[in-house]
């Protein structure tokens, strides 16, 4: 039965629970951006499910007036996989953090990407453990002083994008925690994408790691330090829109249009839909500029499509309709 | 083919046969064929495969011996039996490791071709047991099986040497078929199905099987053949079923009866993997399976599927249950249906993966952080795995709490006749699903008698809600740190489990209902305990009852009453005494004797009888 899609505003997605993140936390921005994206995706709210792990970000489902589960540490992706396999008609969102997804939940994180179920994962990356009050995380920088690394962190960090692409992510986007409009658009795109869509939000933690992304996200420097990529458009950035990327040998290089004979037509065009992730890998690794936007959006068969096709095949090949057909098949015998 | 009619027949009530050889010798197949054929003939049957953890252990080594024991009878058969009437040993290592199990004066068939100097050394024999009179207390039948197999196959085209030697197990099977008056038809049909596209393999196996059969017939060393008449079993249609298959089928039946889709999240682990292997075949029934990246994803994906409205299960063995502990606590906390099957094996740690034990009971009952009671039940026989899985599904759906079903390697891999049950004969399964919005829905409102909460599933308009592992308000389910609320919720979660007592049958006692000794057991030891208690009652050793527990948490309401009716109580377990701990803590006005065995093996009939006699004297 087709039900008409209801009209919503962002307020329809706010639950009656008081939001309890620290004042100034980017989590508020993400919450509002999600609430603003949902009226645009064309799904009734009874068909939307938020699943989280443990950590500051994972309180998220309590604040959404949809179905939701606050799971256990690291396992949100696995729980969400079960939800989606049980009912592929649902719009399923995973809320996770850098520790939740890449430390304790690292195994589930890589395998969910490999399988490519139609899920949306929002990764709140603040390069720190917030809820346990300030230990280094798998994305903390070498040398970073935290509660559990008072003399500086000695464990080199993961780049979420690099790890994800290595695990065969077909959709990867990155966005600063202080750009709600672009964030909303990315969430809408991630929901429309068929497959596992991972969105990394560079989320400032004002208490334990304040300013960790300022050099890329601060309004004053944002345009000069960030390259916001869009599929089919040249990779141009800068206040003057005169910086761009070219490929030189095996490296990306920043050039200035109008200098050294560089013209706009020399600048690389972003192809998010390319199957080969090589260039996407180079983009996620760049530190200057920090690349944001939808870096990769390669369309592939989803896990549930493969499973469905198999089920249809097995059903049509099988003589079993009810369990009694199975129970009475093969070697049976009568005792009189 | 016609079965022999001319040789003198000796009629036996029951016989125990053990086939042993290298782990690549096909002993499991040989044993299965013999037990299936006997079951179809109408015998009662119990089997016990005993194989090493190594897939292909070094040839001829003592630890690479694989065995399969079959007990068949014209009388009720509850266990694979202890001492064997016939040992078929395909090599010296098999003989050495199994000779102790052969009844003195009984028969051993050996493949003399395998008794080479090299194999004797590998089996650590200083001299050839076939030549040094060390077997003089047995009737040894020496057969050059490998040579005879080669001879039988000399005209068959398209076989390499390896394929030829590998079919010698069928020579042995043919001999045993003749000895016990069995037709080879079932096995030949099996070849035809199994090797449909390999006519040369069908031909080879059939030739070797028949060669063994006729060899036994003409061999003067075998004085007579034996007959075991069909057993008196309830009329009906039967099949031979392994415990793990029965478990899988119980869930299929429960899904069909409840009208729900079955979801299995699982990670391969011995000896539970066969449940996954079985369920993954049944996509035609809408079964969804996820072979997950680890044990934790196995259970958490099942939790997600349950949240979304499926009948969700996860299957594992002891080490996997340990990994699932935190997630099981979540399922208990959010009060969702979920069945966890633990096919117990020898522990601790990796322990004895292919051997049996009952040492996960306390883990099942208490192995989680916080106060987190769940329903725990145990299956008693291979066929009972079917009913137990069905019942676990029924309990989890009706009571909105996880259920742990304990089976073990012994009944999971063992097989026995199963009188086929259909879904129509099975009890109704209800569930707590709310299908449409109701005014004032609160996720933690409970049904007043069972205390089960109502189940609102994504996709239902107006029932949107959140659940989670944080303590929640007793009605709304919102996060609550109120001290009194936490105590209330902790107590009500426990009370909900306790009230399951109102929905399960009383504990039954078999044999004497009161008297001298009550034998108490649980789970997969049923066959051994039943047989021992039956024998002692028949032999007139006093009034002995058997209370074999299926419901371990909660226990049936009348448990105390059952215990009260006997002068002495002995609790028998394949662990150091886990159930007895639970009994002692609940019924401290009774004295409990114990009999425990921790060898990775089931109880033997003799050791149980000796122990019980000692207590009664």
TrEMBL record, chain B:
Organism taxonomic ancestry: Bacteria, Pseudomonadati, Bacteroidota, Flavobacteriia, Flavobacteriales
UniProt keyword annotation of Oxidoreductase present: yes
Organism field: Muriicola marianensis
Domain (Pyruvate/ketoisovalerate oxidoreductase catalytic) ranges: 24-213
Alphabetized PANTHER family for the sequence: 2-OXOGLUTARATE OXIDOREDUCTASE SUBUNIT KORA, PYRUVATE-FLAVODOXIN OXIDOREDUCTASE-RELATED
All copies of domain Pyruvate:ferredoxin oxidoreductase core, residue ranges: 516-600
Gene3D superfamilies according to UniProt: 3.40.50.920, 3.40.50.970, Pyruvate-ferredoxin oxidoreductase, PFOR, domain III (3.40.920.10)
Keyword Oxidoreductase set for record: yes
Protein name as it appears in the record: MFS transporter
CDD domains hit by this protein: TPP_PYR_PFOR_IOR-alpha_like
Pyruvate flavodoxin/ferredoxin oxidoreductase pyrimidine binding domain boundaries: 263-473
Source superkingdom: Bacteria
Keywords for this protein: Oxidoreductase
């Amino acid at each position: 039965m087709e039900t008409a899609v209801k009209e919503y505003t962002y307020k329809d997605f706010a639950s009656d629970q008081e939001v309890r993140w620290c004042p100034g936390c980017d989590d508020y921005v993400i919450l509002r951006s999600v609430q603003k994206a949902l009226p645009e995706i064309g799904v009734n709210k009874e068909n939307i499910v938020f699943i989280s792990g443990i950590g500051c970000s994972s309180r998220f489902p309590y604040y959404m007036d949809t179905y939701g589960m606050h799971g256990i540490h690291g396992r949100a992706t696995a729980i969400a996989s079960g939800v989606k396999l049980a009912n592929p008609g649902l719009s399923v969102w995973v809320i996770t953090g850098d520790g939740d997804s890449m430390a304790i939940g690292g195994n589930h994180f890589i395998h969910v990407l490999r399988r490519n179920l139609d899920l949306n994962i929002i990764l709140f990356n603040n390069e720190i453990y917030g809820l346990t009050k300030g230990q280094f995380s798998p994305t903390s920088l070498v040398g970073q002083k935290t509660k559990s690394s008072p003399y500086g962190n000695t464990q080199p960090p993961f780049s979420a994008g690099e790890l994800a692409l290595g695990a065969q992510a077909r959709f990867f986007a990155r966005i600063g925690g202080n750009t709600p409009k672009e964030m909303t658009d990315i969430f809408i795109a991630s929901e429309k994408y068929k497959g596992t869509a991972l969105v990394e939000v560079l989320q400032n933690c004002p208490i334990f790691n304040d300013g960790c992304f300022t050099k890329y996200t601060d309004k004053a420097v944002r345009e000069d330090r960030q390259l916001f990529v869009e599929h089919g458009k040249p990779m141009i950035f800068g206040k003057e829109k005169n910086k761009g990327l070219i490929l030189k040998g095996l490296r990306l290089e920043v050039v200035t249009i109008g200098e050294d004979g560089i013209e706009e037509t020399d600048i690389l065009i972003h192809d998010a839909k390319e199957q080969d992730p090589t260039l996407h890998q180079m983009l996620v690794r760049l530190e200057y500029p920090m690349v944001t936007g939808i870096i990769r959006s390669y369309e592939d068969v989803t896990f549930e499509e493969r499973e469905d096709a198999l089920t249809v095949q097995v059903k049509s090949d099988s003589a079993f309709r009810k369990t009694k057909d199975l129970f009475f098949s093969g070697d049976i015998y009568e005792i009189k | 083919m016609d079965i022999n009619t001319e040789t003198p027949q000796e009629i036996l009530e029951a016989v125990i046969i053990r086939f042993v050889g290298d782990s690549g010798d096909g002993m499991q197949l040989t044993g299965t064929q013999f037990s299936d054929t006997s079951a179809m003939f109408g015998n009662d049957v119990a089997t016990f495969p005993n194989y090493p953890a190594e897939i292909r252990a070094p040839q001829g080594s003592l630890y690479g011996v694989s065995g399969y024991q079959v007990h068949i009878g014209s009388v009720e058969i509850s266990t694979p039996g202890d001492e064997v009437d016939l040992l078929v040993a395909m090599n010296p290592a098999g003989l050495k490791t199994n000779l102790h199990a052969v009844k003195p004066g009984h028969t051993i068939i050996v493949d003399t071709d395998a008794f080479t100097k090299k194999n004797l050394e590998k089996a650590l024999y200083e001299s050839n047991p076939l030549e040094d009179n060390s077997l003089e207390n047995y009737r040894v039948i020496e057969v050059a099986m490998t040579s005879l197999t080669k001879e039988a196959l000399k005209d068959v085209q398209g076989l390499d040497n390896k394929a030829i030697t590998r079919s010698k197990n069928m020579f042995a099977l043919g001999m045993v078929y003749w000895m016990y008056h069995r037709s080879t038809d079932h096995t030949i049909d099996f070849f035809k199905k199994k090797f449909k596209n390999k006519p040369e393999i069908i031909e080879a196996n059939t030739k070797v099987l028949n060669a063994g059969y006729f060899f036994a017939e003409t061999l003067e060393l075998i004085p007579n053949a034996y007959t075991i008449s069909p057993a008196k079993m309830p009329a009906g249609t039967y099949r031979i079923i392994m415990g793990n298959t029965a478990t899988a089928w119980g869930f299929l039946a429960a899904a069909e009866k409840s009208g729900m889709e079955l979801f299995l999240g699982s990670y391969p682990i011995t000896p539970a993997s066969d449940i996954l292997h079985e369920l993954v075949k049944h996509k035609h029934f809408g079964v969804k399976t996820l072979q997950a990246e680890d044990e934790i994803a196995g259970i958490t994906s099942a939790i997600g599927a349950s949240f979304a409205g499926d009948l969700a299960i996860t299957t594992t063995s002891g080490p996997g249950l340990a990994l699932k502990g935190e997630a099981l606590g979540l399922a208990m906390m959010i009060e969702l249906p979920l069945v966890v099957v633990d096919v117990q094996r020898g522990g601790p740690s990796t322990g004895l993966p292919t051997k049996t034990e009952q040492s996960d009971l306390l883990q099942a009952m208490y192995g989680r952080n916080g106060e987190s009671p769940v329903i725990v039940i145990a299956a008693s026989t291979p066929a009972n795995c079917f009913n137990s899985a069905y019942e676990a599904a029924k309990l989890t759906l009706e009571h909105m709490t996880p259920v742990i079903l304990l089976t073990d390697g012994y009944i999971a891999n063992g097989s026995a006749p199963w009188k086929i049950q259909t879904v129509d004969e099975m009890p109704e399964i209800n569930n707590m699903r709310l299908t449409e919005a109701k005014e004032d829905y609160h996720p933690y409102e409970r049904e007043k008698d069972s205390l089960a909460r109502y189940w609102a599933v994504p996709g239902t308009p107006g029932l949107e809600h959140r659940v989670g592992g944080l303590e929640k308000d007793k009605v709304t389910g919102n996060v609550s740190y109120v001290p009194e609320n936490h105590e209330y919720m902790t107590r009500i979660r426990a009370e909900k489990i306790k009230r399951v007592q109102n929905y399960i049958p009383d504990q039954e006692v078999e044999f004497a209902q009161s008297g001298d000794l009550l034998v108490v057991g649980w789970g997969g030891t049923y066959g051994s305990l039943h047989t021992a208690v039956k024998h002692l009652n028949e032999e007139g050793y006093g009034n002995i009852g058997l209370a074999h527990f299926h419901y371990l948490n909660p226990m049936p309401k009348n448990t105390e009453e059952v215990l009260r009716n006997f002068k002495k109580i002995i609790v028998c377990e394949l662990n150091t005494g886990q159930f007895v701990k639970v009994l002692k803590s609940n019924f401290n006005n009774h004295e409990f004797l114990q009999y425990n065995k921790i060898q990775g093996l089931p109880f033997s009939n003799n050791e149980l009888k000796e122990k019980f006699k000692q207590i009664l004297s």
